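re: ur question from yesterday

yeah so i grabbed the chain u mentioned. its 504 aa long if i counted rite. heres the sequnce exactly as i have it in my notes:
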Amino acid sequence: MNRSILAWVATFPLLLGLAVAQENNFARDDLSPKDRSRVEQVTAPTDDFSKAERFENMQGGNATSRKLVSKDSFSQFSANLTFEEEEQFKLGNAFFDKLWVSSPASTFASDGLGPLFNARACQSCHLKDGRGHPPANVQDSRISMFLRLSVPPRTEEEKAKISSGEVQVIEEPTYGRQLQDLAVPGLPAEGKMQIAYEEVPVTLGDGTIINLRKPTYSITDLQYGAMDPKVMMSPRVAPQMIGLGLLEQIHPSDLLANTDPNDTNSDGISGKVSWVYYPGQDKQIGRFGHKASHATVRAQSAGAFAGDLGLSTPDVPKHWGECTSNQAACLAAPNGVQTSQGDTEVPDPILALVSFYSENLAVPLRRDVNDPDVLHGKELFYQTGCSSCHTPKYVTRRDAPNKAQQFQLIWPYSDLLLHDMGEGLADNRPVGDANGREWKTPPLWGIGLTKIVSGHTQFLHDGRARNLLEAILWHGSEAQTARDKVADMNRIDRTSLIRFLDSL
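ran it thru and got these structure tokens back, copy pasting raw so excuse formatting
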């Protein structure tokens, strides 16, 4: 069987998905019939792996950064911003980098940190706007990694809140939704996350043995009493920040077209949308966070200000961050609200500027798109079925509010849907529509620059994978078939597949 036939067979699930989308009338209401035809043509999966597709190196459309590869590759602004928007971006960058201090302080409009927190600045977790990582040693800082906390719903009221979408989790009664391992002077931090690793050997088809790193998490030095015995813990490393505004402007119908919760096409993949509810608004599709628990970049930013830094915003006006009713000393601490600036510690326009900055961190220009090994790796990516979840390309909304994100051909390699990834990656902690085995498909653009930008190659939601091959080998359940095909490859094909991923 020749390569073109193999390629067509590999892309059949994607083509079937397009047919299902048309049958269910997931039509783009932002496009004219002529534009719709163009979009369907340009986003159709390729069956030609002899050369790069047109504009394939421009991963973020016209917003793509053409700067030379460096440790600042994730910190450039969208190339198609106006001069005035560049100023907004740089102002947002200043607030993203800003070190906040505890209240009261002599600095103007810079206090309100905590009282319990995980970082003093957004940039502390998203260093160089890249990925966080677990600590290398027990004594090292966990500044770019933290633990989510929650308990199962018990009362009928709690169950109703979860069922309706009013809340996504029931917080741990004393320690809230996130373990805070730092605190302002005079107040103890909540506790310390501990990680223990077990080496798990995996034998590949050619006899190569790969040791995977299986983590176990615990908490020590609890300062506010015992935790609920039913507490559910889930680790998180800070994700990279590029292309977020473009992801927000993928049309909902394009995401819904890829859903198949009942696996009606029998391909073993049953992606589903994470629906997010905001007070007074219609439900929206979650796109951000490891479990797709936020629908917009602004909502994600406001949540991070509250949970990570303990700062209130107009969207989340919690002046004491994650402090709970069982932490009286925390709630008695002063806050940083200055009424001359607004009713919160991070008023607009600061939240708006940080959101604009986060929306416009440019995706870097892709490299080596016509390299024969990279093209072969791309073909293998399609043949194994990886592209069934890591959807290569979209055209963003024609009616996006910012012209920089309007009608752009982008290549994020994600469907932004929730998928069951198997018991190996399960955190057994449901969040909204995501159960304890489901995770959002992370975008792959920029993944090959992780080492240069972030200084490491640790992947997955908790950084357990020390390289891309380990990350693939952790895939299970819906991704098991694709994972097994990679594991059965010969060394040359595996190297080509990794080279393709490194080119993104």
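noticed a couple things. The CA atoms of residues 146 and 236 lie 6 Å apart. also The radius of gyration is 23 Å.
anyway ttyl
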